[in-house]
Amino acid sequence: IFTADDIKREKIEGRNIVVIDVLRATSVMVTAMARGVEEIHVFKDVEEVFEAGRGRVDAILCGERRGLKVEGFHYGNSPLEYGEEIEGKRMYMTTSNGTKALVGSNSGRRVFTGSFLNLDAVVKRVLEEDEDLVVVCAGTDGEFSLDDALCAGMIAEGIAQKKREAEFTDSALAMRDIALGCREPKDRLAGSRHYSYLESIDFHEDLDYCLSLNLYDIVPEYREGVVRAGRLQ
Ligand code: MLT
What we know:
Bound molecules: D-malate
Shape: globular
Oligomer: single chain
CATH superfamily: ComB-like
Strand order of the largest sheet: 1-8-2-7-9-10-3-6-4-5
Structural class: alpha/beta
CATH topology: putative 2-phosphosulfolactate phosphatase
Largest sheet: 10 strands, mixed
CATH architecture: Alpha-Beta Complex
Distance between the termini: 26 Å
Order of helices and strands: EHEHEHEEEHEHEHHHHHEE
């Protein structure tokens, strides 16, 4: 398990990866897929989004800086903004940490996106693959973020329960400890940094939503710049 800024090419090349940005990029992605979005093109920079979406009638430009919608974009980074009207559309997305973590994971073998909203589905999907797994926690501005770590720990615990012989690195064991006995992610995260920031800019409902477990059985998969929906067999 790494945070986004610690990604080293040799550690991830050819490996299966789950990228997590619980608050809120990967929660937005799985929600948008559930609403019928077909593709999410992800970018590091705002300018790249304007450039890629230019002239496309089905394009939704979306994402945030400092948690707020970018001027000129159609949508921000609140999963609750994304309703049925986005079905069949293409999203062009940049966020402060989540899309950077995905772009940085480009050299992985298969790259999935994880969140509390699709936790069990992610565990099942990676067990189907039966390969070594690297979990990349997007974090916040280069810092460790408890929300991503808790989700990573719950994924590790899910794997441990279903596959007794699985082996874990020390960071994975540490995150499993964080997750130990946690039934309500919200109880663990109150007071953590990005959680508190989102509260301060009035995204209380996003917190309730993003910290809900297993609303979807969709496992979005990133490949060559684009996230698409994958469902369990
Ligand atoms: C990010 O990618 O940094 C986050 O999704 C920020 C946010 O909560 O909007």
